[in-house]
Amino acid sequence: MGKSHLKIFKKKLGRFISEYGFQSFPEFKTVKSYTLPEDWDIESDVMAAHQRSGIGNLRIRDYMKMYYKTPKDFQSFLYTGQVMQGYGIKQAIEAHRRSMPYCMGTLFWQLDDCWPVASWSSMDYYKRWKAMQYVAKKAYQPFLISPSESGDNVNFYIVSDKRQDTEAQLTVQVIGFSGKELFIRKIPVTVRSNASLSYLSLSKKELLGQNKSDSLLIYALLNGTNGEMLSENIMYLRQPKDLSLEKPEIKMQIGKTTNGYSIELSTNELAKDVYLSLEEEGFFTDNYFDLIPGKAKKLELITANEIGDIEKKIKIISLIDSYLQ
């Protein structure tokens, strides 16, 4: 990537992209395994020693300034760095997949680490998933709906790796950050097998109406004929640092399952890049996602342990918490 804007992924395409990436630090739980509280500064000697690139920290800071507001503290820097890494890789994977059959492969660098460190990995040394791993899992699904700006229009691409055509319904909504629906369009589509095509093109004027682009999102959904969700995606017309976010009130309901716990989240305002964390070991089946008012989010915490007072132990933050004092 060098120091290029993320839009470069749309222009610089290859036949098979076999290595590209962007760094991030591991989560705070992992960082605590090799630091003392006095080391909790990106410029500390210990943090510098646990950096795989001589210019890594500077590069991370440069890209944060392009896309995100300045994190308020050390933990927020770690979180925002992971969000930034996931955001960048998402732009790359989707651009590569949209360009098929010209580009027929995309492999990011790298999967994991051989020691706890800041690197290009999508999982840290302890196999804890970074934001990038959750993003990549969704971006590599057999069906991918991928909105893409082109001049004054937004084109809605659907990519399919299936070997047969698929009948489906494409839904496009414009939703205000408080949950108000501002626009909706539904169309039936026949998704071509092993192909990437634009199935709908809408002007920004039609999508926005009289509304401001910094306080709305474009939600794209692909459903099969029996109603199952094949793919969903969210697009913003402004960079994350330019979004007019409000502090959300996130509600959580937890239930017990055979594999751990079920979790359902809801919000009254857009909660961007929602991150759930827990000091005990466990795996969240989804994380670092955008939570939209009126669209409850269900996920699981997979753990073999019985966790007392789990409602108090699961911590939830979103992007606004990284900079709001």
Structural overview:
- With 325 residues, this protein is of the alpha+beta class.
- It has 3 domains: 8-139, TIM Barrel, CATH 3.20.20; 143-241, Sandwich (Immunoglobulin-like), CATH 2.60.40.10; 250-322, Immunoglobulins (Immunoglobulin-like), CATH 2.60.40.
- 21% of the residues lie in helices and 31% in strands.
- It is built from 8 helices and 14 strands.
- It has helices at 8-11, 28-31, 45-49, 56-67, 74-98, 131-139, 204-208, 310-313, and strands at 143-150, 153-160, 166-176, 181-191, 195-203, 216-224, 229-235, 250-257, 260-267, 271-277, 283-284, 289-291, 297-302, 315-317.
- The strands form 4 sheets. Strands 4-3-6-7 form a 4-stranded antiparallel beta sheet, with no helix packed on it. It has a 4-stranded antiparallel beta sheet with strand order 8-9-13-11, with no helix packed on it.
- It is globular, with a radius of gyration of 20 Å.
- The relative contact order is 0.12.
